[in-house]
Amino acid sequence: MKHMNSEVKEERTSNKKRIDLFLVPIVLIAAFLNLFKIWTDEYANAYYTAAVKSMLQSFHNFFYASFDPGGYVTIDKPPVVFWIQTISAKIFGFHGWSVILPQALAGIGSVLLLYVLVKRTFGVWAGRFAALAMALTPIVPAVSRTNNIDSMLVFTLLVATWMLFRAVRTAKFGWVLAAFAMIGVAFNMKMLQAYMVLPAFYVFYVVATKITWKKKIAFLTTATALMLAVSVSWAVVVDSTSADKRPYMGSSQTNSVLELAFGYNGINRLTGNTSVTGSSHKQPAQTQQQTASSETKQNSSSSADASQSSNQSKSSSQKMQAPGGGNQNGMFNTGNPGPFRLFQKGLSDQISWLLPFVIFSIVGLFAGVKFKGPYTTKQKESLFWLAWLLPVAVFFSIAGFFHQYYLIMLAPPIAAFAGAGAVALWSMYKQRNGWKSWLLSSGILTTAALQVYIMSPYVSSIGVTPIAGVGALGVILALVLAVRKERKNSVTNYLGVAAMVVLLAMPAYWAMTPIIYGGNSMLPAAGPDSSSGMGGLPSTATNSKQSGFNGMQPPGSSNGNSSSNNQMQPPSGSSNGGQMQMPGGSSNNSQMPNSFSGKSSSSKRKSGGMNAEVNQKLLNYLTKNNTGEKYLFATTDSTSAAPYIIKTGKPVMAMGGFSGSDPILTVSKLKAMIKKGEVKYFYLSGMGKGGQSDVITWIKENSKEVPSSKWQSTSSSSQQGPFGNGTLYEITLK
Fold this sequence. Notes:
Strand order of the largest sheet: 2-1-3-5-4
Structural class: mainly alpha
Helix content: 40-55%
Radius of gyration: 26 Å
């Protein structure tokens, strides 16, 4: 106990010391990468931004995280992050940057937290390297520059980690409760993804805490019970509330938060049992192929016969590529499941730049450790980071469905091992500690080799020079360090620093690509194609005024052709959480460059999904002809609804939720709403038909079509998207 008290006193003393001057530029780098030019993203993730707009209007919408001001349906995630975004928008005004700001600050906070966590045990230089590695991990700023959830989730889990480490140092039960309760808060950000760190928490507390086994079991059991109680607290309240007194739980099939948490946003992520309509059924291979074709052939002719279309679909599916090229069977450039998935194209350039060095660091940090102990503090904390790294890496290696930006979950342990390992391997190298002294140069050499592999598909974008430079310098520095292993002088020290600079140079460039080339709030990813849609597929948009995904237009803004309604159903899923993100989910740059080196000509990026702009003529018509209806209009899914909610703050009904597949509305319910005068205009496109087919059929049979000349834009510069333009209907029942 005296030893523990002395550690606490030492911590208090160290906290009174002046600021680490080396940390200042690291924080400034993180601030630049996370904050610079976020004010140019006008809509951010329109699906989530529309929800913030709605949540600002009433406590009812705020509590339930309603997507629309009318309280018809919620977004597909728990509310905590969106509560924070709404508070930010309340303080700073409703803007794209004000809803992004909390995540950007969380990204910076994660860098600081990692410094604090690593520094105490592994030394100040280890903390500096870890913080820098976290700041320069490409996927970290790519996600933090959006209003997606993951950056805030990681920050919250690092806060929980700080509490756990303090619980072990002080042997105070209150800190254990606080740490696990914080995981419960994280659950209310992104559900089961928060539980991915639990193996690390359990293993570390059991190994590191110097109390009896009886107390360990009692403390962990109580803390786990508290975590579960906090986790399901909001869900229990919502599921216990009568369905007619709250919005429908978006993207669930049974109007239940718990079903959403443990099914759609939980186990189905691992199994991949997510379908084109959002229900939990495996999507047929043929449908997947047709979906892939629709993603990659934006302007293909709709007049091809069925056989030809099927062949094209199969061919296009086989040719889907990861960023930079390479056959890619996994959707959204997530590769093929297997032990080396994190080294495949599309994932490696987001997170894996330092993985070989981390592997050598783990070997060095655990060298000589005996299973029965005793363990040093460094070994115990290394075990914590390993217990975080391995299960999460295994999940991403075998998971059936996820997006590239989920990989931010791997950033903290990779950065921690990079920092702690750099110092540990350098010490072994300087001490000429047998075979361990070779780990440093070996780690540098293999890491440089991997980075050359990661960059090689991008020769046409970044040129040969940086690729050859990293490869040559990595080999030279590794060999020189190996040769000079017997010498101790300042030159060797400089060589070691130079090696770390070389290994961090290209991750730093990749981390800047969302600033250089433009980001993608829909499917955040770093790289020279960071502004393209579908997680890396290059954009074909050439007109700076053209909004959405590869030429898709806002309602009514195409060339006037409205005859292609419901010809094709896009895949559905959770905005940033589950399925294909085309219908409504987050954003894609509306002013995307035609090549990797191009930039938007607009000072404001109206990202936010395929239809992230408002057709003013349609809005004027609907506003003028509204006779007191609650909803400005109804549409199949959130894609068409979100920008109008953001623009006007008025209720717009997404009949089928995010993707159009939620079984919210029935014909009888719709009839009742129309008779009450709640809605009379319906905009139907070819998207999100899903589980709403009966409702859509009834609308078409019982409505009159509004002439397109009254509401449809006829801009000659517009391009016709693959789903065609929609049709506006009016229904009035007595």
